[in-house]
Design brief:
By secondary structure, the chain is α/β, with parallel strands linked by helices. It is 40% helix and 20% strand. The chain has a six-stranded mixed sheet, sandwiched between helices. Bound molecules: uridine-5'-diphosphate (UDP) and magnesium ion. Uridine-5'-diphosphate binds at residues 15-17, 19, 48, 76, 78-79, 82, 99-101, 103, 161.
Length: 181
């Protein structure tokens, strides 16, 4: 039973692979946003076998920021495995999944939280543009969603990436699946 007045813990799960260029800026923007929500939170960074020093940087975040935890994977397993590990470890009443490369603006998280507080189990964000992505990526993405929606029993809105919020109910269901993609 959902009570909109009850305090909540928000988890933010971030798969990270060689993001040393953007990681400081990402963490800065993310923490400013999370502090503004005025509720407890945890940032769960998943180091997917970075080789560019991102791992050491994340170690420093853990030491200086009490709300940060890191899962270090032993090698690069790919984003899906990193996300699965992070979601399994999330302790929150809800979890936001967000990329570290700032293609997903952290500033939208409060609105996602509001929608969850209003009762949504899943809040999916949609890319308005694919700025910085090349013709091949745009065309293949468009084909991917057309094909996906032809074969799927469910309508999957185009250009919804992984930027989303999931309720505890969804997280529990997801964590029970053996599926990894
Ligand atoms: N990522 C990861 N493991 C990988 C590749 C990427 O954890 O093997 C992370 C990456 O650091 C970023 C997110 O997954 O936070 C999305 O990666 P990318 O920007 O390459 O994917 P796209 O924007 O094309 O979906
Ligand atoms: Mg990206």
């Amino acid at each position: 039973d959902f009570n909109a007045c009850r305090p909540f813990l928000l988890s933010v799960v971030v798969p990270v692979y060689n993001e040393i260029q953007v990681l400081p800026q990402f963490m800065e923007r993310l923490t400013v946003v999370l502090e503004s929500i005025k509720q407890p939170y945890e940032i769960l960074l998943v180091d997917d076998g970075s080789t560019d020093g991102s791992g050491d940087m994340m170690q420093r975040f853990v030491l200086s920021m009490p709300s940060v935890r890191v899962i270090w994977l032993s090698r690069n397993f790919g984003k899906e495995a990193a996300v699965t590990a992070g979601l399994a470890e999330a302790k929150g009443d809800a979890a936001v999944l967000i990329d570290a490369d700032l293609q997903d603006p952290p500033e939208l998280i409060p609105e996602m939280v509001d929608n969850w507080r209003d009762g949504a189990d899943m809040v999916c964000m949609r890319r308005r543009s694919r700025a910085g992505e090349n013709w091949f990526k745009c065309t293949s993405a468009s084909l991917f969603y057309r094909l996906l929606n032809r074969i799927s029993r469910f309508d999957i809105p185009p250009d919804t990436g992984d930027f989303r919020l999931m309720s505890r109910r969804v997280l529990n269901a997801l964590n029970r699946l053996p599926e990894r993609n």
